[in-house]
Amino acid sequence: MLLSMTGYGRANGTFGDKTISVEVRALNSKMTDIKLRFPGDYREKEVELRKMVTDHAERGKIDLNIDVQNADGAALVSLNEALFRGYHRELSRLANELNIHQGEMLQAILRIPNVVASTSGEVDEDEWQAICRTITQALDNFKKFRILEGLSQETELRLRITNIINMLEQVTPFEKERFVRMRERIRNNVEENFGKENLDNNRFEQEILYYLEKMDMSEEKVRLSMHCSHFLEHLDSKQESVGRTLNFISQEMGREINTLGAKAYDADIQRIVVQMKDELEKIKEQLANVL
Fold first, then answer.
1. What pLDDT, on the 0 to 100 scale, is given for residue 57?
2. Based on the structure, what is the number of domains in the chain?
3. Which of 56, 87, 155, 164 has the lowest tally of Cβ within 10 angstroms?
């Protein structure tokens, strides 16, 4: 089962006369990058929050936003007026002195740490448990979103792998024909340059065998077929985080397809190889967004 790296989840809860709103968003990323936004009252819970998100969301660029408000809709914050005035006074003085347009100074000052502060400094454990329940619900909704996205990605990946398997089967008829053409081409070149009467048939057959061995694609075809089967097996597994494994398999598939192209010596096989590479690129695009 695949999980998409992108996702969205939301949940609402209450505690007394307070309303709790939690949003979780995620985009694809090779590493786990978590950004938390929550009222300053719960700063001491940041480590616990990060663990909750990591346990549920795993990899990705993840944003968690927690909003707690009174029943009247007012946020549980207060303005540190003395600090605000101090910043405003000094910034205005510098702006006038350096002839700098003050622009959106109000919003800039409000973003400075401790200018906007929470109304209390202690965490109510019962309230925190209510917040945790809301976070868990949001993360569950977030995972459901990832599962639905993963199903569509799995369908796309199966289609692309099936296409590569079908293309691999199309190589065989052209492969046999190119041996005959290569044999005739080499014989004609030798006879043209050295004369038919000077041709040593035994030596010629040895040279032909050498070239045919170099052109043989049997091993590459078998390995590519095995990689495709291995890929599908991982799609069928119940394991959720298979994105990295599938990416490794796709890299091995790419090596075999490149070798097939190097050994082709045939326009029709080269055309099939190009189509395989196109399918493989589409697979990699999907895997960039799979856990």
1. 81
2. 2
3. 155
Query: In 3-state terms, the chain is what percent helix, strand and coil (to 5)?
Result: 65, 15, 20
Please indicate, yes or no, if residue 130 is contained in any of the structural domains: no
pLDDT digits (tens, 9 = 90+) for 202-218: 766 666 777 777 788 99
Contacts of 28 (CB under 8 A, 6+ apart): 5, 6, 60, 61, 288, 289
Do both 153 and 278 map to the same domain?
Answer: yes
CA atoms of 153 and 142, how far apart (whole Å): 17
User: Tokens in use for 59?
Assistant: 């990899």
Show the domain range for 107: 77-118
| Cα–chain center distance at 102 | 41
Decide if 140 contacts 7 (C-beta within 8 A). Answer: no
Count the helices and strands in the chain (H runs, E runs): 8, 6
Residues 40-56 have pLDDT tens digits of: 778 889 999 999 998 88
* pTM reported for the whole predicted model: 0.74
| 234 alpha carbon, distance to own chain's centre | 17
Rg, C-alpha atoms of the chain: 32
